[in-house]
Amino acid sequence: MDVTPYDALLFVSFGGPEKTEDVVPFLENVTRGRGIPRERLVEVGQHYFDRGGKSPINDQNRAFLAALRSDLAEHGIDLPVYWGNRNWDPYLSDTVAQMRADGIRRAAVFATSAYSSYSSCRQYRENLFEACDTTGGVESAPVLDKLRRYYNHPGFVAPVVDGVIASIEDLPEAERDGARILFVTHSIPTSMNDNAGPDGNAYVAQHLDVAAVIAEQVAERRGVTHEWDLVYCSRSGAPHIPWLEPDVNDHLEELAGKDVRAVVMCPVGFVSDHMEVVYDLDTEALATAEKLGIHARRSPTAGEDPRFVAAVRDLLLERAAVERGEAPERPTVGDLGPGPDRCPAGCCFNQRSQLPTLSGEDSPQYSG
Ligand SMILES: CC1=C(CCC(=O)O)c2cc3nc(cc4[nH]c(cc5[nH]c(cc1n2)c(C)c5CCC(=O)O)c(CCC(=O)O)c4C)C(CCC(=O)O)=C3C
Ligand SMILES: [Fe+2]
Fold it and tell me: In angstroms, what is the span from residue 260 Cα to ligand 1's centroid?
């Protein structure tokens, strides 16, 4: 397996606290300069304190990394895999410093965020720049190539489809065929969606595209068409700023009024069972459904499913081939096709941030 020109894979994630003392400094890292109301921080902090101060995300990333390293080894790919987070240890800058010390020249970058938007893509590219900049300058840093977005990669979608079907089958038999699928993702400010992707609206458009594919595959396999909606969780920010709606709980109320008796909540916006999934869906939304008398299940995330792990290997090999000047297959499902390897300048632009980025067409690492 030819991974030229890469000598490493860099796995980048959000990070989360490991223990009670970590919670407040973690939240400070996440929200620095972002105008999140204090009440919201206290509320979100409580979700972590209630679980002993430990986010589920780090153990999920450790499990994914172990699976990824085995997968690469099994396929004869001898490439070191590094891990760095945006908001908690292991911090991205420490990881990049280690990569420099190890003599890494060029790495493919996989982020645990599948869609386009400032929060889910461009901010990670800012973090890559900063990590290189603060460890000795971007010129001497390893070249970092963030892999294309993968929300519509068949290896990400297949386990999600299986999970939705399993959750439908887990409902009482009489409720299964009438179950409605609620695709759930992280809300973002509507202005952030307006600027998502090169032409705007990419965050919503990508979710609608993949949701339609999942619903279609479920219908084919079950022989029953299920109605579906795209809904949101985890709104933060000041109340007067519009964020994407409807909230999953509000939507459940509305569905109860329309005599919907069963739902499956599919957290398609999350690659593993993050705190948003564990709290906002498993704790809050399932309780809302119960109160309303709606039968509800939360379907699994892709997590460390071998097909999703293999998708990372595919994306790595695909990009390596592109960088060697070849024209590899670029598998996708749905109507939107593969995104660009290098984000165009201004992609997922955020008026309030405007920090330099790596991995885009305007990356200083590509101009020389
Ligand atoms: C689109 C998106 C993703 C998905 C893409 C991706 O995966 O990156 C994501 C992931 C995550 N968000 C996470 C946690 C938090 N996000 C916050 C705040 C915010 N998120 C936003 C958006 C997103 N967030 C936004 C627009 C804000 C407002 C502040 C800002 O503009 O930045 C806050 C502050 C408190 C609050 O307001 O909720 C916390 C604690 C965790 C860790 C969970 C765990 O521990 O398992 C993960 C994976
Ligand atoms: Fe978030």
Answer: 30
pLDDT of res. 368: 55
Virtual torsion, Cα 175, 176, 177, 178, nearest 10 deg: 50
**Could you check whether 8-150+304-367 and 154-298 share the same CATH topology?**
yes
State pTM to two decimals. 0.97
Residue nearest ligand 1's atom 40 by CA = 27
CATH topology of domain 154-298: Rossmann fold (3.40.50)
Comparing C-alpha atoms, which of 5, 9, 6, 1 is closest to residue 110?
9
Q: Dihedral sign for Cα 267, 14, 20, 95, please.
A: positive
Alpha carbon of 337 to ligand 1 centroid (Å): 26
Tell me how far CA of residue 51 lies from CA of 22, 271, 278, 282, in angstroms.
12, 20, 10, 13
Q: What is the pLDDT, as a whole number, of residue 33?
A: 77
Given this model, what pLDDT does residue 1 score?
85
User: Is the Cα dihedral 346, 350, 351, 357 positive or negative?
Assistant: negative
Provide the strand spans (E) within the chain: 8-13, 81-85, 106-111, 143-146, 180-186, 228-233, 262-266, 295-298
Q: Is 124 labelled a binding residue?
A: yes
Predicted confidence band at 348 (pLDDT cuts at 50, 70, 90)? very high
Q: Residue ranges of the domains in the chain?
A: 8-150+304-367, 154-298
* CA-based nearest residue to 254, from 306, 292, 214, 307: 292
Residue 81, beta-bridge partner list: 9
- Which residues have any ligand 1 atom within 6 Å of their CB? 14, 16, 27, 30-31, 34, 36, 40-41, 44, 55-57, 112-113, 117, 119-120, 186, 188, 234, 236-237, 274-276
The gap from C-alpha 72 to its chain's centroid, in whole angstroms, comes to: 21
User: Each residue of 117-134: pLDDT tens digit?
Assistant: 999 999 999 999 999 999
CATH architecture of 8-150+304-367: 3-Layer(aba) Sandwich (3.40)
Distance of CA 227 from the midpoint of ligand 1 (Å): 28
- Tell me the C-alpha to C-alpha distance, in Å, between residue 90 and each of 84, 95, 98, 271, 321: 5, 7, 11, 19, 30
Q: How far apart are CA 171 and CA 222, in angstroms?
A: 14
